[in-house]
């Protein structure tokens, strides 16, 4: 459940005790388009050197507030709401325990049904990129029935200081199982259904340097207790 501003905005120069603190050094803005023609954007805050956590931000329906979805794959998730202007001005977003939940990785054991596959490099506008995908190991009949799609990743070769952007739990699990994905910014990802039809695409529009923090109270730091 989203907690309405039971989070505090801490500006530059403030100090908070007994907090678990996460740093985000980049904001990644993606443009999305589905096969129905619907367009949207996605904004993620990441740490380019630590891909175990991320923050996804989008506007609320009233366009006054931002909805903040945070996940630390090691055991924490939170959903909060804050005024858009305050969010972008703030250096640190501090949650109270009312907006924090324990993250249980329900996809951990499902990863055995998928594999990461490498393809030949992809050429886009005279630039070559790494090309990988997540493919289901289930039968084609099963994939059709469950509407399972293959997700492709186009990865920038010139940003080897970026750890792979693991924006969903299945991808995180597969990466940690075998470390197959190379370093580099995610230039593009897209989905192909069992009939070979493109259903969705996201493409990186901007990668912006950031210096933003999010804190979690020590008493609900579930990374310490999750087995």
Task: Jot down its keywords.
15-stranded mixed sheet, disordered N terminus, single chain, 3 helices, mainly beta, 227 residues
Topology of this protein?
Blueprint: E1 3-4, E2 7-10, E3 19-34, E4 39-47, E5 50-59, E6 65-72, E7 76-83, H1 84-89, E8 92-95, E9 100-102, E10 114-118, E11 122-124, E12 127-136, H2 140-146, E13 150-156, H3 169-178, E14 186-192, E15 198-217
Parallel strand pairs: 1-7, 8-15
Antiparallel strand pairs: 2-8, 3-4, 3-15, 4-5, 5-6, 6-7, 7-9, 10-12, 11-12, 12-13, 13-14, 14-15
Summarize the structure.
This protein has helices spanning about 85-90, 140-145, 170-180; strands at about 5, 5-10, 20-35, 40-45, 50-60, 65-70, 75-85, 90-95, 100, 115-120, 120-125, 125-135, 150-155, 185-190, 200-215. With about 230 residues, the protein is mostly beta strands.
Describe the structure.
The protein is mostly beta strands. Helices cover 10% and strands 51% of the residues. It contains 3 helices and 15 strands. The chain has a 15-stranded mixed sheet that branches. The radius of gyration is 18 Å and the shape is globular.
Assign the structural class, choosing from mainly alpha, mainly beta, alpha/beta, alpha+beta, or little secondary structure: mainly beta
Overall shape: globular
Succession of helices and strands: EEEEEEEHEEEEEHEHEE
Helix content: 10-25%
Query: How many beta-strand runs?
Result: 15
Count, helices: 3
Head-to-tail CA distance between termini: 24 Å
Contiguous runs where pLDDT drops below 50 for at least 5 residues: 1-16
- What's the average pLDDT? 90
Rg over CA atoms, rounded to whole Å, is 18 Å
Largest sheet: 15 strands, mixed
Strand content: over 45%
